[in-house]
Amino acid sequence: MIKCHLSKILGERRLKISDLARDTNINRGTLTRLYHETAERIDLDVLDSLCRYLNCRLDELLEFVDTAEVHDATQE
């Protein structure tokens, strides 16, 4: 599973989705789906724009979480 940390980053920086959409020209719906982690796909140019605007690395924005490991840990 891929975890998106956009909501955490925006919260820490006190930014709103509407500000991000206006400043980056990324569709507000796209940003909302990333914020709520309901996006099923992301264009590379969106990731590039977000990383540039937020001055962050891709691994700070997105994280791979192995759901098998999470499931195994809860079984113990």
From TrEMBL:
Database matches in SUPFAM superfamilies: lambda repressor-like DNA-binding domains
Recorded superkingdom: Bacteria
Pfam family, one: HTH_26
GO molecular function: DNA binding
Domain HTH cro/C1-type, first and last residues per copy: 6-61
Gene3D superfamilies in the cross-refs: lambda repressor-like DNA-binding domains
The name this protein goes by in its record: Helix-turn-helix transcriptional regulator
Source species of the chain: Chitinibacter fontanus
